[in-house]
Design a protein that fits this description.
0% of the residues are buried. It is elongated, with a radius of gyration of 18 Å. The N and C termini lie far apart (43 Å). The chain has 83 residues and is mainly alpha-helical. The mean pLDDT is 86. The chain contains four helices and no strands.
Length: 83
């Protein structure tokens, strides 16, 4: 593979990654995560296990991202006619 071939694929890869990240709607996920940690603290009556908080945040991010991607796919016909 030559340097020119790598130069042409790097922007395409970067664009694809940005597209996939946008598909998961990270701004919406951040709102979910901001409310998750305080709810865990209140439910536990103090700070829960740090590993539990990390696992919950990672799992919540992945779950919400997957749900957002499925929602974008399912609503693609409606989104096509919206401004």
């Amino acid at each position: 593979m030559t340097a020119n071939a790598i130069a042409f694929t790097a922007p395409a890869l970067s664009s694809s990654i940005r597209g996939y990240v946008a598909l998961t709607k990270p701004r919406v996920i951040s709102l979910l995560l901001v409310t998750t940690v305080p709810a865990m603290v209140v439910a536990h009556g103090g700070w829960p296990s740090t590993w539990l908080v990390i696992a919950t945040l990672i799992g919540g991010s992945l779950s919400a991202g997957g749900a957002n991607a499925i929602n974008c796919w399912y609503d693609r016909d409606i989104d096509a006619i919206m401004r």
